[in-house]
Amino acid sequence: MVLFDESVKERIEDFYDREQELEMFVKGVREGRRIIAVLGVRRLGKSSLVKVGLNVLGAPNIFIDVRKAYEEYGSISKIAVYTVFQEGLRKLISRSKWRSLIEKLKTLRGVKVAVLDVGVEVSLDWSSRGVRLVSILDRVDEWAGEMGERAVLVLDEAQYLRYSNINFRGLLAYFYDNLRNTVLVLTGSEVGLLLDFLRINDPASELYGRYIYEVRLGRFTREESVNFLRKGFAEYGINPPENVIKEAVEAFDGIVGWLVKFGRLCVDKGVSRERIEETFVEASKLVEEELGKLFARSVRYRYILEAVANGQARWSQIKKYVIARELKPISDKVLFELLQNLQKMGLVEKRMNDEGKLEYYIPDPVIKYIIAK
Ligand SMILES: Nc1ncnc2c1ncn2[C@@H]1O[C@H](COP(=O)(O)OP(=O)(O)O)[C@@H](O)[C@H]1O
Ligand SMILES: [Mg+2]
Q1: Whose CA is nearest to atom 26 of ligand 1?
Q2: Which ligand is nearest to the CA of 257?
Q3: Is residue 123 domain-shared with residue 270, that is, in the same domain?
Q4: Contact at 8 Å (CB) between 11 and 207?
């Protein structure tokens, strides 16, 4: 078991708890739910849950990291989609267990498959004369049916599909209506953006009225965080002082990804409360770039986050703060929209404070740390 391994978990032995969510996911696939959405802010273990779940199921799958594709190609262009899909397909049929899929695909125009000594090669012709993705999905679905298997297509961080000029909603609707042996799994960190993109409540949307089976991941409770750290340290025969555990649990606020990073640092450099600050510094490097992109879109996002991070967290306080920072007025409508966007991205959430008044807060302690700095 390696709880403090920072890569996406794949084996159930390395995956702490999440029993209910895992069971829900596995059940969803087994029952052949059409679209399963795995939702929750970054670093709660969505990708890990899906990978572990797929391993538990032993299901043939194509796993596509949409976010990575977006970052590599700068958009979700047709060539980007075909290239990552091709790679996912290659991985799938590289497993000897699923080789029989090759026969099904080979007869499609625009699909080339070669079995070489060094492995399998797949090439998809993405030109207009080439192969359409639905044709491939059809074949995979047919094949899964014949094999008595449930195939799974995963689109990890699917909210990035909104940057595509391919009609993905149409493709997903086709999926929903026609493919009986394949389940579509979407994960999303920016939950609001993903739901906006799917538009299941909009009569004009291709996905209107479709049912989405949701698996939501929350942060660990205090107790779960404590147990997670204890168990992780125990794997190295370390029994850390109570106060360090307590402080770390407080600091990382139930976000498992940051607990892992902290644990890793402690194992490598020795347990100490200084590792908490170091974790924040390291984690900041990961997050700062993303925030930079957001602030480039509108510096007002920065001011709003600053206000919230500094405890000016009620609507009127935020407004005052932004005006003071920017030295010009901001309308309620604009502020509302910006706050709405931040919530859709999962950067800000709403809650009742002790006086029963609505206030905003930043759910990710690392983002709060960067902003407050
Ligand atoms: N249940 C878990 N047990 C152990 N480690 C986990 C668990 N869930 C997530 N992790 C770790 O947390 C980090 C973030 O997980 P990841 O699956 O990438 O989250 P997400 O996809 O939600 O951003 C990774 O380092 C991963 O190994
Ligand atoms: Mg992920």
Answers
A1: 8
A2: 1
A3: no
A4: no
